[in-house]
Amino acid sequence: MRDPYADLEYNCHGPLAVLEACRQAVPEAVLVFAGTRQIYGRPQYLPVDEDHPIRPVDINGVHKWTAEEYHSLYRDVYGTQAVVLRLTNTYGSRMRVRDARQTFLGLWIRRLLTGGTFEVYGDGSQLRDFTYIDDAVRALLLAAMRVDAMGGVFNVGDERAISLRELAELLVSMQGEGEYRIVDFPADRKAIDIGDYQGDFSRIRRVLGWTPAVPLEEGLERTLAYFARHGTKYWGNES
Prior knowledge:
The chain has 239 residues and is an alpha/beta fold.
Protein backbone atom coordinates (compact mmCIF):
# COMPACT_ATOMS: atom_id res chain seq x y z
CA MET A 1 0.00 0.00 0.00
CA ARG A 2 2.93 2.35 0.62
CA ASP A 3 4.48 1.78 -2.80
CA PRO A 4 1.68 0.82 -5.21
CA TYR A 5 3.75 1.43 -8.34
CA ALA A 6 6.41 -1.05 -7.24
CA ASP A 7 3.67 -3.55 -6.42
CA LEU A 8 2.24 -2.99 -9.88
CA GLU A 9 5.65 -3.72 -11.41
CA TYR A 10 6.17 -6.93 -9.45
CA ASN A 11 2.68 -8.37 -9.61
CA CYS A 12 1.37 -7.22 -12.99
CA HIS A 13 4.32 -6.42 -15.24
CA GLY A 14 6.27 -9.46 -14.05
CA PRO A 15 3.62 -12.11 -14.78
CA LEU A 16 2.69 -10.38 -18.04
CA ALA A 17 6.33 -10.46 -19.16
CA VAL A 18 6.46 -14.21 -18.48
CA LEU A 19 3.24 -14.79 -20.39
CA GLU A 20 4.51 -12.83 -23.37
CA ALA A 21 7.88 -14.59 -23.36
CA CYS A 22 6.18 -17.99 -23.31
CA ARG A 23 3.69 -17.00 -26.00
CA GLN A 24 6.48 -15.97 -28.33
CA ALA A 25 9.18 -18.53 -27.51
CA VAL A 26 7.61 -21.61 -25.88
CA PRO A 27 3.84 -21.58 -26.48
CA GLU A 28 3.58 -25.18 -25.26
CA ALA A 29 4.84 -24.23 -21.78
CA VAL A 30 2.64 -24.87 -18.77
CA LEU A 31 2.34 -21.89 -16.43
CA VAL A 32 1.25 -22.23 -12.81
CA PHE A 33 0.49 -18.85 -11.29
CA ALA A 34 0.97 -18.49 -7.53
CA GLY A 35 -2.08 -16.45 -6.67
CA THR A 36 -3.40 -15.46 -3.27
CA ARG A 37 -6.49 -15.60 -1.08
CA GLN A 38 -6.13 -11.80 -0.78
CA ILE A 39 -8.24 -11.35 -3.88
CA TYR A 40 -11.37 -12.39 -1.99
CA GLY A 41 -11.11 -9.50 0.46
CA ARG A 42 -13.37 -9.72 3.51
CA PRO A 43 -15.10 -13.11 3.39
CA GLN A 44 -18.87 -13.14 3.01
CA TYR A 45 -18.90 -16.75 4.21
CA LEU A 46 -16.54 -19.44 5.50
CA PRO A 47 -14.91 -21.52 4.24
CA VAL A 48 -14.25 -19.44 1.12
CA ASP A 49 -14.56 -21.36 -2.15
CA GLU A 50 -13.41 -20.33 -5.62
CA ASP A 51 -16.88 -18.93 -6.45
CA HIS A 52 -16.69 -16.36 -3.66
CA PRO A 53 -16.97 -12.76 -4.95
CA ILE A 54 -13.67 -11.08 -5.76
CA ARG A 55 -13.41 -7.92 -3.64
CA PRO A 56 -9.75 -7.23 -2.74
CA VAL A 57 -9.20 -4.65 -0.01
CA ASP A 58 -5.60 -3.71 -0.82
CA ILE A 59 -3.34 -2.85 -3.75
CA ASN A 60 -1.60 -6.23 -3.73
CA GLY A 61 -4.92 -8.06 -3.98
CA VAL A 62 -6.00 -5.92 -6.94
CA HIS A 63 -2.75 -6.59 -8.77
CA LYS A 64 -2.79 -10.32 -8.05
CA TRP A 65 -6.34 -10.50 -9.38
CA THR A 66 -5.24 -8.58 -12.49
CA ALA A 67 -2.44 -11.11 -13.01
CA GLU A 68 -4.94 -13.94 -12.76
CA GLU A 69 -6.99 -12.25 -15.47
CA TYR A 70 -3.90 -12.02 -17.70
CA HIS A 71 -3.55 -15.79 -17.47
CA SER A 72 -7.23 -16.32 -18.27
CA LEU A 73 -6.99 -13.97 -21.24
CA TYR A 74 -3.89 -15.67 -22.66
CA ARG A 75 -5.55 -19.04 -22.22
CA ASP A 76 -8.68 -17.92 -24.08
CA VAL A 77 -6.95 -15.98 -26.85
CA TYR A 78 -3.65 -17.81 -27.37
CA GLY A 79 -4.35 -21.24 -25.90
CA THR A 80 -1.73 -20.80 -23.17
CA GLN A 81 -1.78 -23.67 -20.70
CA ALA A 82 -2.23 -21.92 -17.39
CA VAL A 83 -3.34 -22.93 -13.89
CA VAL A 84 -3.98 -20.62 -10.94
CA LEU A 85 -3.44 -21.61 -7.32
CA ARG A 86 -4.77 -19.27 -4.66
CA LEU A 87 -2.38 -19.77 -1.75
CA THR A 88 -2.95 -18.86 1.88
CA ASN A 89 -0.32 -18.06 4.53
CA THR A 90 2.43 -20.28 3.17
CA TYR A 91 5.19 -20.78 5.74
CA GLY A 92 8.23 -22.92 6.49
CA SER A 93 11.99 -23.13 6.24
CA ARG A 94 13.65 -20.30 4.32
CA MET A 95 10.61 -18.04 4.50
CA ARG A 96 11.09 -14.30 4.77
CA VAL A 97 11.58 -13.35 8.42
CA ARG A 98 13.20 -9.90 8.21
CA ASP A 99 9.81 -8.21 8.32
CA ALA A 100 6.12 -8.85 7.78
CA ARG A 101 6.04 -7.95 4.11
CA GLN A 102 5.21 -11.49 3.01
CA THR A 103 3.66 -12.98 6.14
CA PHE A 104 3.34 -11.87 9.74
CA LEU A 105 4.35 -15.36 10.89
CA GLY A 106 7.94 -14.91 9.75
CA LEU A 107 8.35 -11.81 11.90
CA TRP A 108 6.73 -13.58 14.85
CA ILE A 109 9.24 -16.42 14.57
CA ARG A 110 12.19 -14.06 14.29
CA ARG A 111 11.15 -12.10 17.38
CA LEU A 112 10.49 -15.31 19.30
CA LEU A 113 13.93 -16.76 18.51
CA THR A 114 15.82 -13.54 19.21
CA GLY A 115 14.30 -12.86 22.60
CA GLY A 116 11.93 -10.13 21.50
CA THR A 117 8.20 -9.68 21.96
CA PHE A 118 5.95 -10.08 18.95
CA GLU A 119 2.66 -8.29 18.47
CA VAL A 120 -0.80 -9.65 17.70
CA TYR A 121 -3.08 -7.02 16.20
CA GLY A 122 -6.69 -6.57 17.23
CA ASP A 123 -8.09 -8.90 19.86
CA GLY A 124 -6.37 -11.99 18.45
CA SER A 125 -9.63 -13.74 17.56
CA GLN A 126 -9.09 -13.51 13.80
CA LEU A 127 -9.02 -16.94 12.15
CA ARG A 128 -6.44 -18.01 9.58
CA ASP A 129 -5.43 -21.23 7.85
CA PHE A 130 -1.84 -22.07 6.95
CA THR A 131 -0.01 -24.14 4.34
CA TYR A 132 3.40 -25.64 5.02
CA ILE A 133 5.87 -25.08 2.19
CA ASP A 134 6.20 -28.78 1.28
CA ASP A 135 2.44 -29.02 0.79
CA ALA A 136 2.41 -25.85 -1.32
CA VAL A 137 5.20 -27.17 -3.56
CA ARG A 138 3.35 -30.45 -4.00
CA ALA A 139 0.25 -28.53 -5.09
CA LEU A 140 2.29 -26.51 -7.60
CA LEU A 141 3.82 -29.65 -9.09
CA LEU A 142 0.47 -31.42 -9.36
CA ALA A 143 -1.02 -28.39 -11.08
CA ALA A 144 1.84 -28.33 -13.59
CA MET A 145 1.80 -32.04 -14.38
CA ARG A 146 -1.88 -32.91 -14.53
CA VAL A 147 -3.79 -32.35 -17.77
CA ASP A 148 -7.07 -32.06 -15.88
CA ALA A 149 -5.68 -29.06 -14.02
CA MET A 150 -5.23 -26.93 -17.14
CA GLY A 151 -7.37 -23.81 -17.11
CA GLY A 152 -8.34 -24.39 -13.50
CA VAL A 153 -8.41 -22.12 -10.48
CA PHE A 154 -7.80 -23.83 -7.16
CA ASN A 155 -7.71 -22.77 -3.53
CA VAL A 156 -4.89 -24.25 -1.45
CA GLY A 157 -5.47 -24.30 2.28
CA ASP A 158 -5.94 -26.37 5.39
CA GLU A 159 -8.83 -28.12 7.10
CA ARG A 160 -8.00 -26.30 10.32
CA ALA A 161 -8.41 -22.63 11.07
CA ILE A 162 -6.74 -21.20 14.16
CA SER A 163 -7.10 -17.83 15.86
CA LEU A 164 -4.06 -15.58 15.95
CA ARG A 165 -4.06 -15.64 19.75
CA GLU A 166 -4.08 -19.45 19.77
CA LEU A 167 -1.29 -19.46 17.20
CA ALA A 168 0.80 -17.09 19.31
CA GLU A 169 0.30 -19.24 22.41
CA LEU A 170 1.19 -22.37 20.45
CA LEU A 171 4.46 -20.85 19.23
CA VAL A 172 5.47 -19.70 22.70
CA SER A 173 4.63 -23.13 24.12
CA MET A 174 6.68 -24.88 21.46
CA GLN A 175 9.67 -22.62 21.99
CA GLY A 176 9.39 -22.85 25.77
CA GLU A 177 10.04 -19.14 26.15
CA GLY A 178 9.17 -15.77 24.69
CA GLU A 179 6.10 -13.63 24.86
CA TYR A 180 3.61 -11.74 22.77
CA ARG A 181 1.27 -8.85 23.42
CA ILE A 182 -2.11 -7.90 22.04
CA VAL A 183 -2.08 -4.40 20.52
CA ASP A 184 -4.53 -2.22 18.65
CA PHE A 185 -4.42 -2.29 14.89
CA PRO A 186 -2.38 0.52 13.35
CA ALA A 187 -4.80 2.65 11.34
CA ASP A 188 -3.29 1.69 7.99
CA ARG A 189 -3.49 -2.03 8.83
CA LYS A 190 -7.03 -1.82 10.19
CA ALA A 191 -8.26 -0.32 6.94
CA ILE A 192 -7.25 -3.44 4.99
CA ASP A 193 -7.83 -6.15 7.60
CA ILE A 194 -10.08 -8.93 6.30
CA GLY A 195 -11.27 -10.41 9.60
CA ASP A 196 -11.55 -14.21 9.56
CA TYR A 197 -10.42 -16.42 6.69
CA GLN A 198 -10.47 -20.12 5.94
CA GLY A 199 -10.30 -21.51 2.43
CA ASP A 200 -12.35 -24.32 0.92
CA PHE A 201 -9.88 -26.54 -0.97
CA SER A 202 -12.38 -29.24 -1.95
CA ARG A 203 -11.91 -28.51 -5.66
CA ILE A 204 -8.18 -29.27 -5.72
CA ARG A 205 -8.79 -32.31 -3.54
CA ARG A 206 -11.45 -33.58 -5.96
CA VAL A 207 -9.63 -32.80 -9.22
CA LEU A 208 -5.97 -33.37 -8.30
CA GLY A 209 -6.18 -35.42 -5.13
CA TRP A 210 -4.27 -32.82 -3.13
CA THR A 211 -4.70 -32.51 0.61
CA PRO A 212 -2.31 -30.99 3.16
CA ALA A 213 0.00 -33.64 4.63
CA VAL A 214 1.87 -31.58 7.26
CA PRO A 215 -0.22 -30.61 10.33
CA LEU A 216 0.25 -27.12 11.70
CA GLU A 217 2.12 -28.23 14.83
CA GLU A 218 4.58 -30.30 12.81
CA GLY A 219 5.13 -27.53 10.29
CA LEU A 220 5.78 -24.99 13.05
CA GLU A 221 8.21 -27.35 14.77
CA ARG A 222 10.15 -27.81 11.53
CA THR A 223 10.19 -24.07 10.92
CA LEU A 224 11.35 -23.17 14.43
CA ALA A 225 14.07 -25.84 14.27
CA TYR A 226 15.33 -24.54 10.93
CA PHE A 227 15.58 -20.93 12.04
CA ALA A 228 17.07 -21.91 15.40
CA ARG A 229 19.97 -23.37 13.38
CA HIS A 230 20.18 -20.91 10.49
CA GLY A 231 18.36 -17.79 11.64
CA THR A 232 21.40 -15.52 11.83
CA LYS A 233 21.84 -15.95 8.08
CA TYR A 234 18.42 -14.38 7.66
CA TRP A 235 18.42 -11.61 10.23
CA GLY A 236 22.13 -11.17 10.99
CA ASN A 237 22.80 -9.34 14.23
CA GLU A 238 19.42 -7.64 14.25
CA SER A 239 16.99 -8.52 17.03
